[in-house]
Amino acid sequence: MNQRFPWPDERLIKAAQNGDVTSLTTVVMESQPHVRKFALSLCASPQDAEDAAQEALIILYRKIGTLRATGALASWMFRIVRNECLRQVRLLVPRSGEASTEPEASAEPSAEDAVLHRLEAERIAAAVSALPRDQRQVLIMRDIQGLPGKTVARSLGLSAAAMKSRLHRARATLRHALAVPDQALARPAGGDPRP
Prior knowledge:
Layout: H1 10-17, H2 21-42, H3 46-63, H4 73-92, H5 111-130, H6 133-144, H7 149-156, H8 160-179, H9 183-186
Helix pairs in contact: 1-2, 2-3, 2-4, 3-4, 4-5, 6-8, 7-8
């Protein structure tokens, strides 16, 4: 853990949970460097990381009272940041297929179809999030955001060949990860809902 910026101590967190505004402000300020570091390691781009860090700090400020154990602040913030990064990827995933101008489908999807679609989107987002950062950045910029290869290479300071190599590795890793069924999603906690 970074000694230069320690996490807030438990007494301070407890005072913040009890409504002390000064303590709450201090908890948010002392958590900020760690939250940013989490976001930079998990999100696709520095801009996404900044957005995720800001959202996580807002959640911390508003919902610190829901934190059950004062010693669990770091893991709670990590989960919030991870979820924000995944949410950003989920928001981008449908955009890649929006070019279709087909007329509206006859009816809304069934509840089962909606759940299966959401689970698949979560599985894809989790697989993208699990990629090494350099591969994740290239994949999101090129395949999800649809940026031209030259733009991706230039913005990341890479040669075209290096960008293509990272993109190839990212796609192969993602393809492999998605080929393996995710047992946690295949069997929901409540059991298999299908008859």
